[in-house]
Amino acid sequence: MEEDTRNLMDEYKGLSNEEVKACLDKKRNSLEIAIENVSHDFNAGTIVRNANNFNAAKVHIVGRHKYNRRGAMCTDKYLEICYWDSIEEFLKDQRERGREVVAIECNVPGCRPLGEKEFKAETTLLLGGESDGLTPEILEGVDDIRFIENFGSTRSVNVGVASGIAMYEWARQIVINQK
To answer: pTM of the entire structure?
Structure first.
């Protein structure tokens, strides 16, 4: 038998991509991730990879649809990715499904620390691009805006890193502390 060289946990080695996705579907978390205005494809790929790592239910890509699948390390094959041409349709979907949309954005007046957030299980974390951040249009429709506290000289962490930090904080509260 040929060795499975994919970056998979041992329990998934030797399974087809479809079988891996089916196994993950059985234990999906309720967390969803959305990205808007992400101009660096590698960052979008990193966010998709992080979403897979936390077994998020979906990744929503609002607006520009291209991203670097190489950065995702093929993890896009193991979760659902939804594409939205308009902010309005994305937000309508979120409202209809009773989801709380929490933007992770440091450059917005009134944003509050991520460490003080009490997450709901039905949360969608929304992340924006490195330089432009989230558009004012989408920020008007979110339920909450949080920033990641930092202690160095730069005002923010890379958006791919920010996604992992925010996903972990949600998982710590909703998944880890509920076991």
So the answer is: 0.92
